[in-house]
Amino acid sequence: MRGRYRHHSLEYKRDIVEQSLLPERSVARLAREHGLNANQVFAWRKAYREGRLEPSAFLPVTVTPASQAHAVFGAAAPSPPSGRLVIEQGGARLTIEGMPDAQTLRLVLLTLPR
């Protein structure tokens, strides 16, 4: 019978991975010392190489209605909505063209890995 899943912090995972990358360390022995499965350590090593064991560094975003944005930036006449939003994380890139509605943008931001 299986026990509950253990959740480890990013710092713990990075520490284990960095130890496993040392030339004199055996992944199997390191995993045993920490009560882990060697396959788990290999999965963490892959995530580490892909940049998925780094803390998220998102900046706060404020959505301003278009009417206020034009007033702030002094636009004389509103132009048709256009633009491009590019989000890069862990070697993946998401590009959103045009003017997404707030609900779509919220959904995209909430589904990004943290």
Structure characteristics:
about 110 residues, alpha+beta, two-stranded antiparallel sheet, 5 helices
Task: Report on the architecture of this protein.
It is a single chain. This protein is α+β, with helices and mostly antiparallel strands and 114 residues long. It folds into two domains: 10-49; 66-111, no CATH class. The chain contains five helices and two strands. 6% of the residues are buried.
Question: Can you tell me the number of structural domains?
Answer: 2
Provide the low-confidence segments as ranges. none
What is the N-to-C order of secondary-structure elements (H for helix, E for strand)? HHHHEEH
The assembly state of the depicted protein chains is single chain
Overall pLDDT level: 79
Overall shape: it is elongated
Instruction: Quote the distance from N terminus to C terminus.
Output: 31 Å
Helix content: 40-55%
Short précis:
The protein is α+β, with helices and mostly antiparallel strands and 114 residues long. The protein is built from five helices and two strands, in the order ααααββα.
Question: What layout of secondary structure does this protein have?
Answer:
Elements (H helix, E strand, L loop, with lengths): L9 H11 L6 H7 L4 H12 L16 H8 L10 E6 L2 E6 L4 H10 L3
Antiparallel strand pairs: 1-2
Helix pairs in contact: 1-3, 2-3
